[in-house]
Amino acid sequence: MFGVGLPEFAVIAFVAVLVFGPDRLPELAKQAGAMVRKARQLANAARDELRDELGPEYADLELRDLDPRTIVRKHIVEAMEDADEQTPRRRGLRSLQDGEIPPYDVDAT
């Protein structure tokens, strides 16, 4: 989580024991846990309020879906899937063979 591995976590814990002392550390951990729970509750409340305001078509909305990169990626994937499903086969057209030059109309250009 947050790119912190076991060695980094051990160093953070060691520094915390040195700075705060072993007496105050459990109390600080309890406060940090309460703060994380409160932040999670606020985020969930904001998500639920957004879902209510936007209506039933956004019932599966997640806050990470509001990231512009995620939105663009999602729409591109949907468009590509739609294009695959709706590719009409036009009559009289065929694919070019290897090395074949496409037709060129001088009057059209």
Please provide a written account of the structure:
The protein is mainly alpha-helical. The protein has a domain at 6-59. 61% of the residues lie in helices and 0% in strands. It has helices at 6-54, 68-85. The longest helix is centred in the N-terminal third of the chain and has 49 residues, at 6-54. The model has no long low-confidence stretch (mean pLDDT 82).
Quick structural gist:
The chain is mainly α and 109 residues long.
Order of helices and strands: HH
Proportion of residues in helical segments: 55-70%
Mean of residue pLDDT values: 82
Number of helices in the DSSP assignment: 2
Instruction: List the uncertain runs.
Output: none
- Shape field: elongated
Radius of gyration: 28 Å
Query: Which sheet architecture does the biggest sheet show?
Result: none
Strand content: under 5%
Strands, count? 0
Topology of this structure?
Layout: H1 6-54, H2 68-85
How would you describe this structure in keywords?
109 residues, mainly alpha
